[in-house]
Amino acid sequence: MFFNVPSWNLGEPVVDAKKKGAKKTVKESQPDAAPRPTNIPKRKEKVEREKSNPAKKSRSVEPVQHKIVELPQTKGKSKEESKLSGARFRFLNQKLYESSSNEALSYFRQHPTDFAHYHVGFREQTKAWPVNPVDLFIDRLNKRLNNEKLLIADLGCGEAKIAETLHKRAVVHSFDLAAVSEFVTVASMTDVPLEDSSVDVVIFCLSLMNTDYTAALAEANRILRANGELWISEVASRFDGKHGLDEFVKSLQTAGFSTFERDTSNAVFISLYAKKHSKAKIDAKRLKPILKPCLYKKR
After folding, report:
1. What's the predicted TM-score (pTM) here?
2. How far is CA 115 from the centre of its chain?
3. Domain count, the chain
């Protein structure tokens, strides 16, 4: 059970601005923020489609001007404040698993500080982990970058640690529902502003959370080049055992990917590496959702 606490948004319904006809709020850019990458390939196919059918213009979620959301300080918190922060994190974590990508995007546009509080809670969770999968991805990319040039898309990037670490060695496009870093572009994971077949590696690091995560996989297929790679890391319990993992790999096959490596060496996380094998447009409605939500017990 959650209690209403001042400045919390507990219990507020997620409102999709498109469905409710609400006005979009465009926030002004942070004047002190570092410049965002200007070399994001434009999505030509989308522009041509919209010219031929103007009624579909509102379908896509474009990146918006926004301020960088500052993460609140955690030092010096009392035990009671830490408990409240933990409860807030669990509430927001559940909201993400129960909302579509566009619904979550709409919610965090209305309540950007909630996104910051979510990531503070997430950071606290990672302190108890034996290893953070994003660090494993960074190590793997560093090795590849010794011999290759890569264009990387990090979908659900959080604090954009991959871009922060590798931006001098590679082009990294980082997308999430709100920005807590100057490297982040705000967008729905099901409709990112990148051109078809323009990316070498797409990464989902603990970010296949929303109810329509299969649409995010279809989007990954769209932006990946032929033989481009999809890297996924998720909490092992979400696969519900080996059978669930096998079923998820089959669903990736339906989404146009051939899995070439499974890393089950970690007791907490499972990482999958796959290559795009299909050039055909993937219908997300055909993809069967396999992953279980990772919900925390109410305290």
Report:
1. 0.76
2. 12
3. 2
Q: Which residues of the chain have pLDDT under 70?
A: 1-67, 69, 71-82, 295-299
Are 159 and 105 part of one and the same domain? no
- Asked whether residue 107 is domain-assigned, the answer is yes
- Tokens 């031929």: give the residue: 52
**pLDDT tens across 4-26, in order?**
344 444 444 444 444 444 444 33
Q: State the Cα–Cα distance between residues 186 and 243, nearest whole angstrom.
A: 35
111 and 164 share one domain: no
Question: Domain residues for 155?
Answer: 133-286
